[in-house]
Amino acid sequence: MLQLSVSDPVQQADGLNKFTSYKVNTNTDLPQFAYSNYAVIRRYSDFLWLATQLASEFAGAIIPPLPEKQAVSRFNSEFVEHRRTQLEKFLQRVAVHPELMGAVSFANFLQADDITFTSMKNAGSSSSTSDGKPPKSTGAGVMKWFAETKTSITHTMGKEDLVKSAFDDQIDEITTYVANLENQMKNVVQHTSGLVKKGKETANGLFEVSENTRDESRKIATAGYIHYRTNPLNSYSFVSLHSFRSCFIKNDFARRSLGWPSRCLDRPSRTSWGRL
What we know:
Blueprint: E1 2-14, E2 17-28, E3 37-43, H1 44-57, H2 77-95, H3 104-111, H4 114-123, H5 140-157, H6 166-230, H7 232-257, H8 270-275
Antiparallel strand pairs: 1-2, 2-3
């Protein structure tokens, strides 16, 4: 059993340098720990030291992440509480790791007194990075470690002696699938671009055709109207018809109302008037 908790954040000052300290509580029955119940005071830089030591002692192991540093508002109550919970989660994840939980640096972090712990930090400070952060054992560091291990095994045993596992076959299959999918997606993008380009060209062509058709229609309509108005036969027929109908209306009124004689042509029949 190994129960860990981080509590009681307190703001402290070391000269002009201010920082927040945390109480780390340990409750365990494991034999590698000197005390079953113990509490120490640690600050954020101490957690960074622990992460650095674990990465150094267990190359290739995935170290649980620590909360990021914050330059402003780092003493805000909400930020301090968030950092406390993240630091507690970091220790709890280390405690359940089958390899990291047995590290000497982890036991010293949990139960060493201040003087002893400061001495260990100073002794191992040369292995820390310049910015105080642990080396990136995850990501590129892990891949580098695997590459070096594979190269060492290949030189020792020979490439032909390496036996592929089911996971290797699955990884090769996924890699091939992803490569084929990437090529197919490139083809889809290329064809889609071509279709979009053709669609734009077709739309522009239809627009030009409609503009030309509208202009030609206007020209034809204008020419027809001018031809009709300038044709003497059409003008004469229109004037004659208008004069005849006006004269007929006047004479018909004169004969019916005043009894005057007609001065135009005889009154047309209903049928001929309908034609006019």
